[in-house]
Design a protein that fits this description.
Length: 472
Amino acid sequence: MSTKTTTLVPLTNISDEGELLELERKYCSWGDTVHYLEPPKFFERAEGCYLYDREGTPYLDLQMWYSAASFGYGNRRLNAALTRQLSKLPQLACQYLHPEKVELAAAIARLNESKFGLEGRVHFNVGGSSAIEDSLKLVRNASGKNLVFAFMGGYHGRTLGASAITSSYRYRRRFGHFSDRAQFVPFPYCFRCPYGKKKEDCGMYCVKQFEKLFETEYNGVWDAKANESEYAAFYIEAVQATGGYIIPPPEYFPALKKILDEHKILMVDDEIQMGFYRAGKFWAIENFNVDPDIVVFGKALTNGLNPLSGVWAREDLISPEKFPPGSTHSTFSSNPLGTAVALEAVRMMEENDYEEITQRKGAYFLAQLKDLQRRYPKVIGDTDGIGLALRIEICRADGYEPDRELTDKIFAEGMKGDLNARGQRMGLVLDVGGYYKNVFTLAPCFDITQEEIDLAVELLEQLIRRCAPDRL
Ligand SMILES: Cc1ncc(COP(=O)(O)O)c(C=O)c1O
């Protein structure tokens, strides 16, 4: 047995960044994060739309923690709800009830009843991936099947079950065989149509290709005699998030849902990133006039404070008779700090017209981005947006071939914090997504002002001019 004494915590607060980075290199697993920048960046403070580094330089944040902090860093109303709960009932085992959990579940269930005309119930967990796992259990429990469809370009998380339905093979490659990996179907990514068609005259070719799967049992998914599919559900993101904020044409989801209903396949709507008004409606799917069977949510529900995620499902899938106590469990699932903040967030959404706010600000922002695209056609191939979910596709001089290298360069330059914001030093926080990692997926704070949108576009222009001087 070792006789050495151990020290669990550093004896002093370490303020030297070099020393902290050395410790990070030695003691932090890199598996739970991504080293996008070398060295990774430290931040000290956050407020509104801005992050502040250790020197106090502001960074205008256009990704807001992957859309988890949509209501602004340090949102006073939500922070106050957290501190109120902290002094009232901060901890409680999930086997007991607290009012905030019940009120929150009722609020979401009633809202969905009014939106989808369907009765249902709400089930809580902590992170997005965990809620996805719970939804997979709901699907399996209801159908007795474990195969599902999902989209190419789709992202549903990194736990094992969520990885199995997330398109990227890179996320699965080192972790053995995924026997219930989803069957991935092309998403209507019209700027780069997977079938090489043009949106104007494709006649919804992609939906027809999906429908063909059910024409004969020899296509591998359907037994016409038994009138039964081997696939229990289709996991969708109404607006593909990590895939590059791709907005499908309005007629796509209604056509898909019709096929799913005809073949008794559930539609599971992953709203983890796009829910809570990111795409201009409470749920992104509302933009497409489709009623899903299951909705999964997380992220912005607590504005990135004490995490809370959840699943809403149709009553016949989630009633206590069908999905009895103990079907899933997580110690922190309906934690009172999370439910209290979430309830306040839902009240805030009820009192403020976020539909109008996100659509108006998003339309203004998109118009500025279109103008930027017109002025830099050798850098920007596509811009699009819905609500305050906006995309900029960085391309080579032909305006089409993805330019990942330039995208990375612009991203890294933005993080240097040395842009000129009308005389003040500033950085720009961008997020890179897309199938070819050449898309800036913009998820600005809902409180962003028109002046800050103008500033964001000015900073983007500075970055383009700095990083692609040969393509102006
Ligand atoms: C659409 C979508 N689904 C699921 C997840 C996974 O959520 P979490 O990272 O909280 O596990 C994410 C996270 O980015 C997401 O964007």
